[in-house]
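Figure S7 source data.
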Amino acid sequence: MSQVEAVREALSKVQDPELHRSLTELGMVESIDIDGGTARVTVLLTISGCPMQDRLREDITKAVLEVDGLSAIDLTFGAMSQEQRDKVKSIVRGGRDKVIPFAQAGSLTRVIGVASGKGGVGKSSLTANLAVAAANKGLRVGILDADVYGHSIPRLMGLIGVRPTAIDQMFIPPVAFGVKVVSMEMFKPERADAVAYRGPLLHRVLEQLLSDAHWGDLDLLLLDLPPGTGDLAISLAQLIPTSEIIVVTTPQIAAAEVAERAGRIAHQMHQRVLGVIENMSAFPCPKCGEEISLFGSGGGEETSKVLSQLVGADVPLLGKVAFSPELRSGGDDGHPVVSLETESASARAINEIVEKLVVRPKSLLGVRLGISS
Ligand SMILES: Nc1ncnc2c1ncn2[C@@H]1O[C@H](COP(=O)(O)OP(=O)(O)O)[C@@H](O)[C@H]1O
Ligand SMILES: [Mg+2]
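Tokens for the predicted adenosine-5'-diphosphate complex:
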């Protein structure tokens, strides 16, 4: 093997840190010349000013210097042409055109929308924690923050201000706590900018976030839906007909009535309603241990009962997550309680719900997830 070939071989073992494909496969290696003990290498970046440049330089240098007879590297970064970028996108998408991968026949990703009748019931907090808990169990998990008006997932996941790396339209979801996260917030010029979309545009935004993100292989995608029975829930059902729904409610009976409506829409759209989670349930007084039902009681059971009657099948109460200051503060600090206070009652309750949702503890790639309840 010539030294040029040996360097190419070494570079074929270096991966793009975000696309997780080898530099040679992606066509990033522009040229290799050997000059005495020095390898002159030009590598093309998919985007100029790639944030991963330092990491790449390190990995490339290490790999090349392992080649026999080479003692130095002269590495230059260049930028890809449009045509080269198009090729990268096509490779990464497995040759397919832009599609929603989860809507394709044979998709192994379970897509679950987290819905609620009204805002403030803890839907986003639960979405974040369920995702992190599932990732902790070895699943490959993504969150799509589809609550375009009230997106709170970036804060909950400690990703405020983080912008995804983009190759033209395609972008790579940032990862936090092992979860790939996409939120409308990541595309706003200013955090404080309001997002105001009418239904049809909203549908397109959801479609784009689903198809333009390079999700990779996922076992589970959770969508934090806007509260209520709005356009977006319907769009989800249309875009991914196999998607399922979890309904979140507080223990208040009044809240339960509103929550049912979210389940009702899902049922009308032929989506499976997986179950109900009651959030902000009774918690023991830290001083005397007496149960305090801050938000009343019975809402979870009531929602489960009414939805079961509606769909003519069991819509179980998947669990109750108690009112919990650590869940609240974990959210504010961007450290989901399941990753921080793993032994707290709320973290345990969330882990138990995830257990019910997914049967197998390891990555389920290649296996469609079953339901145990
Ligand atoms: N189990 C809980 N215990 C205490 N506070 C909670 C709990 N769940 C959510 N919260 C708090 O309630 C507020 C609303 O939660 P959020 O997840 O944003 O609700 P939604 O997405 O339904 O609007 C947040 O301040 C959150 O920290
Ligand atoms: Mg929310």
